[in-house]
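Reviewers of the previous submission asked for a worked example of the structure-prediction workflow described in the proposal, so we include one complete record here. The input consisted solely of the amino acid sequence. No template or homolog information was supplied to the procedure at any stage.
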Amino acid sequence: MNYFTKNRVFLLLSTVVSGVICMLLRFVMMVFGCDDRGLLISMHFSVILCWAVAAVFLAGLVFGVRRLGDAGSYEQLFPASAVGGTMVVMAGVMLLVVSLYGDTVFEKAAGAAAGASMICTGSSRFSGKKPAFICNFLICVFFVVKLIGNYRIWSADPQLQDYAFQMLACVMLMLAAFHRVSADADAIHRKRLAYTCLAAGFLCIVSLSDPENPVYYGACGLWALSSTGLLEPVAAQQED
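From that input alone, the workflow returned the following structure tokens.
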């Protein structure tokens, strides 16, 4: 295993491990971190540890993606991948299922459109072909709409700990989708794409502790972790 392959494995493994640790700490927080009134204790050890792990991971990720550089064409960064294609297709199917339970017709339609787009982009990934621009664009629009819709619900909750990681996950998913659709338009920012996708994947894993939306965050986590692009430096292509 060469140095660059080790870097890719380290980035993915640290994302998953850190996410699982924070997810378990949030479970502990929800079970043991409440007072007699049912309110979360802000200085509970699980809360402090969870935020400490998250801060260290997200800060360390900045340095982890710096070595990727900015070189690389779309074909180099998104080569044919059975694993990547399968993950995106699975995410699309899961999102389609979740969309059936949307509160409004608009939410159901937006979720279904995003799920179908993920299936299309995943299918393109099997052959390494660039998907139609509209596919990732619809996914980006969906994450924007989802963030706005969720914030209306979260703003009525006085306990930030209830939704902090879910809100951060939605923000990072929106940014990751923006950089992913930019890549389809050949405006590739490798380090930003890798950072936002890995950060979104981490936050989605943590948000699996949300008892109301685990399937949604599971789908989004799969999509994010399979949309990072190649996590290894590549040589710049020489122009004729």
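The chain has a mean pLDDT of 87. We consider this example representative of the routine output the project will generate in years two and three.
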